[in-house]
């Protein structure tokens, strides 16, 4: 049965350029001492992955893209699938320390994927022998997947399905879902018929959706009025709001979830996500102050909203996400006052309210013809026309809180990487795993050449929160709806050991 990409999935293909590659990547570090014999060979990893390719449709399907993008692409079976074409390995150069590792990770992430094969690959890095907190002899697995194929939730599920819950090889997900029968690529006649039908129906469906959502669109437009400087109102212009180049940077640190829980107790009503945003806000304050670039206004971050819900099917590849914008309160020096302010904002700006504009655009985009959407997507994300509506992206994807294994090796550390965009040159991914949460930093060489210093700023910001003493117990401020109408705020829309 033919399966076509959704509009949201396809946009990650349309917006990809040489400088802005739209794949995501998991960075997983393993200790092979738990494996039989105390070591793992590259061929053992290939054999393990090959035994799990039936756990998700993404492993064996490739894109069938249409000429001139007259309609969204289709997924088809890869008749030439070869597991070894998707896997490679190398060893760190001396001294095999954390700096060498982050350089290798950033370089691999900066390379384009082969778009003619299934949209994933794996790169094994050996020789992690001099990294603090990492067992000697460990190896890393860099697992890239194109964003057109998965979002954070479905990508995390695909990784867990590839993992074991013990060194003996017991699958973490014992019964994988049945695979789709995609069949061969559609014929020219089928393509023309489907594209013509979609183009004819799109205007009617688009106008019906637009009429239903008009009040919300007007409200969203008022909140995102653009200032004379080109930035969205309430969003300061920073070094991150520039076109990004091809040379990406990576660094990371981790903290204990137990420490995050202790910080939450200091500000009643605060969530894990609030603590993450507060930590990043404090780090940005330190970093920009050091460079004498700290604006008076708070920087604003975009955070994703998982539209799958608690009962959503994470096993289904593709994208089901919206987003909201949230001030990181880099304008507040006191760490607990910053956390309280972020808590107060997020209490009001929950999914139904803050994510409305992004959900509207997602719904409307389903009814835009493929060729039109492709052209518009390339324009609005270009260097010249990219919207300056945020300063950075913060993504928090919960992971497994039990040890996971690959070919007998235990996963000891996990990080995540995601695409940057023009006018958004900083991404902080915060995946959690087995009692720890990582702050994974992705930027670009011209934007943040001293990325290791920003990692230090994150560590110091978190330490400030740990050391802070509450002045008095403060409850979340939730104003009545009538009183909240006139309230002004920034536009809404969300280690190293």
What does the model show?
- With 497 residues, this protein is α+β, with helices and mostly antiparallel strands.
- Helices cover 33% and strands 19% of the residues.
- The protein is built from 13 helices and 16 strands.
- The chain has helices spanning 7-14, 42-50, 98-109, 152-161, 188-223, 257-266, 272-290, 335-348, 351-354, 356-365, 370-380, 451-467, 481-484; strands spanning 3-4, 23-31, 61-64, 74-77, 87-91, 120-128, 138-146, 248-256, 300-306, 321-327, 392-395, 405-406, 409-417, 426-429, 432-433, 436-444.
- Strands 8, 9, 10, 11, 14, 15 and 16 form a 7-stranded mixed β-sheet that branches.
- Helix 3 links the parallel strand 5 and strand 6.
- Helix 5 (188-223) packs antiparallel against helix 10 (356-365).
- The longest helix has 36 residues, at 188-223.
- The chain starts with a strand and ends in a 13-residue tail after the last helix.
* End-to-end gap: 47 Å
**For the residues shown, what is the average pLDDT?**
80
Radius of gyration: 23 Å
Are there runs of 5+ residues with pLDDT below 50, and where? 199-214, 216-222, 224-229, 351-382, 482-497
N-to-C series of helices and strands: EHEHEEEHEEHHEHHEEHHHHEEEEEEHH
Number of strands: 16
Total helices: the number is 13
Strand percent estimate: 15-25%
Helix content: 25-40%
Characterize the largest beta sheet: strand count, sense, and whether it forms a barrel.
7 strands, mixed
So what's the overall shape?
A: globular
Category by helix and strand content: alpha+beta
């Amino acid at each position: 049965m033919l399966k076509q990409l959704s509009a949201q999935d396809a946009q990650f293909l349309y917006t990809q350029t040489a400088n802005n590659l739209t794949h995501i990547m998991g960075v997983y570090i393993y200790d092979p001492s738990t494996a039989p014999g105390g070591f793992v060979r590259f061929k053992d990893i290939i054999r393990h992955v090959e035994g799990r390719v039936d756990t998700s449709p993404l492993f064996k399907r490739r894109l069938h893209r249409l000429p001139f993008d007259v309609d969204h692409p289709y997924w088809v079976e890869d008749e030439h699938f070869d597991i070894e074409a998707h896997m490679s390995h190398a060893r760190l150069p001396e001294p095999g320390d954390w700096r060498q590792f982050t350089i290798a990770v950033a370089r691999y992430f900066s390379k384009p994927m082969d778009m003619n094969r299934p949209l994933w690959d794996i790169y094994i890095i050996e020789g992690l022998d001099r990294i603090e907190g990492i067992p000697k002899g460990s190896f890393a697995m860099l697992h890239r997947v194109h964003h057109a194929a998965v979002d954070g939730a479905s990508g995390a599920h695909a990784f867990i399905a590839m993992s074991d819950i013990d060194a003996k090889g017991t699958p973490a997900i014992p019964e994988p879902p049945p695979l789709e029968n995609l069949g061969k690529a559609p014929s020219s006649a089928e393509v023309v018929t489907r594209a013509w039908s979609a183009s004819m129906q799109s205007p009617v469906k688009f106008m019906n959706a637009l009429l239903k959502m008009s009040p919300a669109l007007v409200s969203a437009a008022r909140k995102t009025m653009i200032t004379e400087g080109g930035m969205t109102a309430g969003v300061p212009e920073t070094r991150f709001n520039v076109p990004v180049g091809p040379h990406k940077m990576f660094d990371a640190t981790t903290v204990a979830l137990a420490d995050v829980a202790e910080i939450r107790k200091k500000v009643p009503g605060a969530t894990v996500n609030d603590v993450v945003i507060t930590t990043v806000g404090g780090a940005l304050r330190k970093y920009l102050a050091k460079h004498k670039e700290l604006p008076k206004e708070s920087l604003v971050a975009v955070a994703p909203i998982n539209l799958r819900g608690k009962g959503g099917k994470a096993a289904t590849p593709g994208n089901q996400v919206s987003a909201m914008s949230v001030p990181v309160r880099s304008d507040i020096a006191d760490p607990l006052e910053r956390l309280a302010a972020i808590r107060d904002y997020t209490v009001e700006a929950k999914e139904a309210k803050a994510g409305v504009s992004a959900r509207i655009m997602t719904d409307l985009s389903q009814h835009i013809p493929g060729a039109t959407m492709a052209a518009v997507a390339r324009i609005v994300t270009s260097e010249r026309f990219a919207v300056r509506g945020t300063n950075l992206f913060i993504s928090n994807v919960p992971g497994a809180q039990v040890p996971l294994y690959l070919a007998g090796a235990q996963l000891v550390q996990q990080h995540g990487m995601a695409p940057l965009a023009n006018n958004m040159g900083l991404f902080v991914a915060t995946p959690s795993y087995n009692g720890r949460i990582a702050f994974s930093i992705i930027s670009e060489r011209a934007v943040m050449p001293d990325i290791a210093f920003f990692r230090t700023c994150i560590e110091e910001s978190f330490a400030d929160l740990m050391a802070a003493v509450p002045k008095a117990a403060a409850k979340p401020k939730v104003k009545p709806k009538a009183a909240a109408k006139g309230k002004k705020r920034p536009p809404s829309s969300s280690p190293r050991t």
